[in-house]
Amino acid sequence: MSRTPPPLGPGGEFDIIRRVLKDATPPGPEIALGSGDDCALIRHGDGFLALSVDLSVEGGHFVSDWGTPELIGERAVRIAISDLAAMSAEPLATLVSLNTPRTAGSGLAERIFRGCLAATEACGAAHIGGDLSHAADAIVIDVTALGKVVEPLLRSTARPGDALWVTGRLGAAAAAVRAWKAGGKPKDRWRRRFWEPPPRIEEARWLARAGASAAIDLSDGLLADSGHIAAASGIGLEIDWEAVPAAPEIETEIALAGGEDYELLVAAPRDIFTDDTTAEFELTFGVPLTRVGRAVSGSGVRVFRAGQEIEAASPGFDHFGDEG
Amino acid sequence: MSRTPPPLGPGGEFDIIRRVLKDATPPGPEIALGSGDDCALIRHGDGFLALSVDLSVEGGHFVSDWGTPELIGERAVRIAISDLAAMSAEPLATLVSLNTPRTAGSGLAERIFRGCLAATEACGAAHIGGDLSHAADAIVIDVTALGKVVEPLLRSTARPGDALWVTGRLGAAAAAVRAWKAGGKPKDRWRRRFWEPPPRIEEARWLARAGASAAIDLSDGLLADSGHIAAASGIGLEIDWEAVPAAPEIETEIALAGGEDYELLVAAPRDIFTDDTTAEFELTFGVPLTRVGRAVSGSGVRVFRAGQEIEAASPGFDHFGDEG
């Protein structure tokens, strides 16, 4: 017995997952949702437990010199918990697996671990387990995030006619990465945005209650992550270049294609979110809620500038990608 | 508010965990058990979900040349599921985070991932998520194992007067590691025992029903893991050298101190397990159940040979250790 492979967006990185999982046995009835969304869902009481893993590897996802050991731990937990937010789940617990280089001594592991604990508790969760090693010559952190949710926001439930919305402003984290890679020093607010991405936990629950139909967190960039919603929902998405809410001093191209923002991309039936909704959202959370496009019949993601479709490359990030 | 740090056994590797977690907020009521046992436990229906993570790093936990990519994946899943067995939990699902070296191409990741899926399904579980990257120059696999259990076997519930039992025979996996490290070629059955450790899932549930009071899986070696039961239960353990069930051609010293066996160490009230019990266990599972010692008042682990206490070093393994 085989199952339908998870409907992930385009990218060679997802081919591995698709190829291997097409031979997998379908999960039993206790698993409400397996691979292919931000979290897996396990039936639990009147709702679900949401479960996700997020791997952070030195040299691929971050460079140590860009921050401190505490920030490395904090960021790893924040981006794992962002997957819970994308399902509108409430964080419950984290488990942390951490490898530090043999040569670094135990002080490095302790400082990273303290950062993990601080971020876990700041998100209202508890640290409930983990595994430490000091083998490979790179820092590797894998965070398992566990949350609970009654009515999860999925990637697969956007419908043609939905409007697309983005929380916050995009591109500052990617601008920081670009500055570091060019040997420069990013502006402080870019650097902070990279190291301390804000899991939009309360924002997501507010948007779910307000009638959102689907969501994903923006880890690979607005373009690439839009592709995941389009593939999972079996629809097309159209994004308006002029509407993309770039952070101050950030070019729209970076806001559109750069990753690491961990804001939310949300679909909602047209006319559900009014001017009142966006005003109340901004008043409540201190960040904007911006309409960036629409869901249509078809497939894939198209970008329009001054009403004309344009080529918009989606480089995504140079890791294999995020399975769920 | 702080909580009692998890009662882990001796070892510098556990000092980090103890130091950091003494400042942690106690988990909420939904978390029945946090760090310090083989799994964390989340209240779930009439029982619990058991959750554990297990990190395998190339160069620390295995060397690629010792096996195949498929075996690397299989072993990582089997040892993660062994933590479920140690709680007498039934495997439900796995999530797999995998890093492969950038230079290796996607074929390596796919082969390891196929091994992970095969072992997951062989254990009756479903693969429900993961994360792939290709940053660090080492293979890193972190497996999150999820199971369910109604009456979990803990590390902390052994009592003075309990007898100590071990499933199977010990030392073959450590003998394989020793042979590889010496540049030799291990016997086939040693090699198989390293790469395909058998999670004792059904054995643990059988022993729990038969009246076992506590359990741990033997990852760090009988001596080191006995220390964890002793610390968690607030008691001492005594082990009889002559009783240790070494695998054929394996010295008792290796059976006692070598790790990677993934057999179970189980405590049970004295006289609960009779000769009939051990005969039925061996008939059912094809492996022996051997009485190796007893729990006493006090603390720590002592080894007796010909009735005399002996010095028995517990080198454990050269990673930081397993937090839960």
From TrEMBL, chains A, B:
Domain PurM-like C-terminal, first and last residues per copy? 159-303
Q: Which reaction does it catalyse?
A: thiamine phosphate + ATP = thiamine diphosphate + ADP
Domain (PurM-like N-terminal) spans: 36-149
> Residues that bind Mg(2+) 2, according to the entry?
54, 83
Q: What is its EC number?
A: 2.7.4.16
InterPro entries, per database record: PurM-like_C_dom, PurM-like_C_sf, PurM-like_N, PurM-like_N_sf, ThiL-like
Listed binding positions for ATP are 130-131, 155, 219
EC category name: transferase
Binding-site residues, Mg(2+) 4: 38, 52, 83
Which residues does the record give as Mg(2+) 3 binding sites? 38, 83, 217
User: Which keywords, in A-to-Z order, does the entry hold?
Assistant: ATP-binding, Kinase, Magnesium, Metal-binding, Nucleotide-binding, Thiamine biosynthesis, Transferase
Entry binding sites for substrate: 61, 260, 317
Where is Mg(2+) 5 annotated to bind? Answer: 220
Please name the Pfam families in this protein's record: AIRS, AIRS_C
Q: Which GO terms describe its biological process?
A: thiamine biosynthetic process; thiamine diphosphate biosynthetic process
A molecular function GO annotation:
thiamine-phosphate kinase activity
* SUPFAM superfamilies from the UniProt entry: PurM C-terminal domain-like, PurM N-terminal domain-like
Q: Locate the residues binding Mg(2+) 1.
A: 54, 131
The task this protein performs is described as: Catalyzes the ATP-dependent phosphorylation of thiamine-monophosphate (TMP) to form thiamine-pyrophosphate (TPP), the active form of vitamin B1.
Print the miscellaneous field: Reaction mechanism of ThiL seems to utilize a direct, inline transfer of the gamma-phosphate of ATP to TMP rather than a phosphorylated enzyme intermediate.
* Stated family: Belongs to the thiamine-monophosphate kinase family.
NCBIfam families cross-referenced by the UniProt entry: thiL
**Record's protein name:** Thiamine-monophosphate kinase
What is the scientific name of the source organism? Candidatus Kutchimonas denitrificans
